[in-house]
Amino acid sequence: MASSEEDGTNGGASEAGEEREATGKRRRLGWVATAWLTFYNIAMTAGWLVLAIAMARFYMEKGTHKGLYKSIQKTLKFFQTFAVLEIVHCLIGIVPTSVLVAGVQVSSRIFMVWLITHSIKPIQNEESVVLFLVAWTVTEITRYSFYTFSLLDHLPYFIKWARYNFFIILYPVGVAGELLTIYAALPYVKKTGMFSIRLPNKYNVSFDYYYFLLITMASYIPLFPQLYFHMLRQRRRVLHGEVIVEKDD
Ligand SMILES: CCCCCCCCCCCCC/C=C/C(=O)SCCNC(=O)CCNC(=O)[C@H](O)C(C)(C)COP(=O)(O)OP(=O)(O)OC[C@H]1O[C@@H](n2cnc3c(N)ncnc32)[C@H](O)[C@@H]1OP(=O)(O)O
Questions:
Q1: What pLDDT sits at residue 10?
Q2: b/e map of 17-30 (b: 16 or more CB within 10 Å)?
Q3: Share of the chain above pLDDT 70, in %
C-alpha cells in the first residue's frame, strides 16, 4: 500500500516528525558544515543547470549533437571535478554516505570526463556521450536541489519523488552511455598506444591502457548493481519509511 508520503498527501504527524528530524540533523551537523553544504549544493545545482541550458541551446541552434561536448566541456569538467569534494564530505563525516559508494560513483565520473572524453578527441561526437551527459545532468540537478532544499527544511515533495525515482531509468541510461563511449574509444587506444608503458624501460614496468579499459568495463558488472541496489534501498527508506541496515559502511 502507498504511504501518505508517497501519494503526496503527507500527514501532519509525519510532517512534524520530519521537521524535528531535520532540526536535529542540523544541530548535530553544526552551522559551519550546514553553511558549507548549503553553499556547495546551491553551487552544484546552478552549475548543472547552466550545463542543461547550454546543451538545450546548442541543440536548438545547431540541430545536431556534433560539437556539443566541445561547447560544454569547460563547465562539465569544472563541476564534475568539484564533485571530488563529495568523497571529502564522507571522509570528514559531514554527510552519512559511505566513502566506498561515493568513491566509486565520483571516480567513475572523473575517469569518464578526464581519461576518456577529454583525452580521446575522436569519440567526443559519439551519441553515447550525449546519453551519459543528459543522464548525469538531469540526475545532478535533481540530487543537488534535493540536498539544498532538505538543508533549508523546505523540500517540495516532487523533488524528493524525482530524486528517488528518476535514477531507476537514468542510472542504466548513464551507464549504457559510459560503456558505449569506452567501447568506442577502444580502437583508437589500441592504435595509438596512449597512456601505455612498454617494456623495456628503466623501471621495468608495463601498462596497457587498452586492457585497463577492458578491465574497467568488466568492473561495471559487479560495481554498478551495488550502486543501483544502494539507491533502491535509499528509495525504500526515504519514500516508504523502511528501516534499512547498510552493510557496506
Ligand atoms: C579509476 C576508474 C574507476 C572506474 C570504476 C568503474 C566502475 C563503476 C561502476 C558504476 C558506474 C556508475 C556511473 C554513474 C553513472 C551515473 O551517474 S548515470 C546517471 C544516474 N545517476 C544516479 O542516479 C546517481 C545516483 N547516485 C547518487 O545519488 C550518489 O552518488 C550515491 C553516492 C550513489 C548515493 O548517494 P547517498 O548519499 O548514499 O544517498 P542519498 O539518499 O542521496 O543521501 C544519503 C544521506 O546523505 C545526505 N547527503 C548526501 N550528500 C549530501 C550533500 N551533498 N549535502 C547534504 N546532505 C547530503 C542526504 O541528505 C541523506 O541524508 P539522510 O536522509 O539524513 O540520510
A1: 43
A2: eeeeebeeeeeebe
A3: 86
pTM of the entire predicted model: 0.90
Q: Which helix (H) or strand (E) holds 116?
A: none
Ligand 1 touching residue 223 (CB < 6 A)? yes
Ligand 1: centre distance to CA 79 (Å):
15
Ligand 1 near 17 CB (within 6 A): no
Is 178 a residue of the active site?
yes
Distance 105 CA to ligand 1 centre (A): 7
Count Cβ atoms within 10 A of the Cβ of residue 205 and give its class: 0-12 exposed, 13-18 middle, 19 or more buried.
exposed
pLDDT digits (tens, 9 = 90+) for 193-246: 999 999 999 999 999 999 999 999 999 999 999 999 999 999 999 999 887 766
Separation in Å, CA 35 to CA 26, 55, 74, 139, 244: 10, 30, 27, 23, 28
